[in-house]
Amino acid sequence: MPALVLLGAQWGDEGKGKATDLLGGSVDYVVRYQGGNNAGHTVVVGDQKYALHLLPSGILSPGCTPVIGNGVVVDPAVLLSELSGLADRGVDTSKLLISGNAHLITPYHTTLDKVSERFLGKRKIGTTGRGIGPAYADKINRVGIRVQDLFDESILRQKVEAALDNKNQVLAKLYNRRAIAVDQVVEELLGYADPLSGYVADTTLLLNNAIDQGRVVLFEGGQGTLLDVDHGTYPFVTSSNPTAGGACTGTGVGPTKISRVIGILKAYTTRVGAGPFPTELLDEDGEKLRTIGGERGVTTGRDRRCGWFDAVIARYATRVNGLTDFFLTKLDVLTGWERIPVCVAYEIDGKRVEELPYSQTDFHHAKPIYETLPGWSEDITQAKSFDELPKNAQKYVQALEEMSGAPISAIGVGPGRDETIQINSFL
Length: 427
Ligand code: IMP
Fold this sequence. Notes:
Elements: E1 3-8, H1 16-24, E2 29-32, E3 41-45, E4 48-52, E5 65-68, E6 73-74, H2 76-88, E7 97-99, E8 103-104, H3 107-120, H4 132-141, H5 153-174, H6 182-197, E9 200-201, H7 203-212, E10 217-220, H8 244-249, E11 260-266, E12 269-271, H9 284-293, E13 305-307, E14 309-310, H10 311-321, E15 325-329, E16 339-348, E17 351-353, H11 360-365, E18 367-374, H12 391-404, E19 408-412, E20 420-422
Parallel strand pairs: 1-10, 1-11, 2-5, 2-10, 5-7, 6-8, 7-9, 11-15, 14-16, 15-19
Antiparallel strand pairs: 3-4, 12-13, 16-17, 16-18, 19-20
Helix pairs in contact: 3-4, 5-6
The structure holds inosinic acid.
Residues 11-13, 38-40, 125-128, 130, 132-133, 222-223, 227, 236, 238-239, 272-273 line the site of inosinic acid (IMP).
């Protein structure tokens, strides 16, 4: 079972960092395959809390090689500051490998992200403002700058010139901003060449060899299924493919080599930024979930929108990712509710709909149909096995499993590394 994908089954922030970290001790490589520093993983190790944005969470597991794949967009300034922050706390970061084919987020991408959101006004996406969309747009437009370009000054200059040719027109004429000087960008980027040179590698070759040699490779998705640019709630999505297929294109490892796809599923639902969210709670239950669950973005500090569990979304995640397992997180947050509603289907224009509607219009009109399950009041954070959970918590998990279409193989009952109930092994 050498290659596993671990991804968000909802709108991101499902607690993937904890799940990846839990597996970290038994895996040889942890690989990020998409997104950039728009992601935010919180990992708790002992009494230490780490907030990671760009680095794979495997960086915290000694013996594990963290890899940034070709599908990731890398802001080199953020990467270096994250590395030095960890080094200051005594974490060994020397094993990190970065694909030479990964694209760079430059200062003009961040500027464009911010000004274009401002320009959209009420129609804005609510991006993280980290330059993710503009960097991916340049990649697809074939005017992106890649990590490998840092090591060839003349190529770098040509590419920056080509990219800025058009962007400076847009910045000046459309957004009324000052043009960005080619020299300034080239100089800044060249400054990253030395500190990054030791990390750059042919990660595709390396990962395929590792899998062939029976090493355990874990592909770690950022964001979540419903934020996927193809399969999410477009246009309120990120600009990459967090779904399972992204693990292949974002690393150069073929689908036949992937043995397991694990969806991280929060016991309720959250979303950051704009876009439809059928089970959103705008009442005191929503506020309670936000407070107890600590639902504040690791990257942006924004409050997350909160709502009840949505089984329609979970079923959809099973389908579009071919999930083999779920890791249910934050079950402890639901402790104390007398009754817990779960969305089992939607009502759209008077009709009951069991599957996620493919039309954006329908999804915007979807109203949740709830089934209400009995809650529990006992503290579950010390539970070490499924049997140690209160009966109603067991029933809640079983109901979610039946509705979601894949076995729940692990349950998070608290934020700590060891506050997890493992039902089936992932390896
Ligand atoms: P972008 O990825 O910064 O372009 O933002 C696009 C959308 O994805 C916005 O709604 C963001 O709030 C959302 N988003 C991006 N990264 C994350 C994440 O790690 N967790 C949750 N939402 C995210």
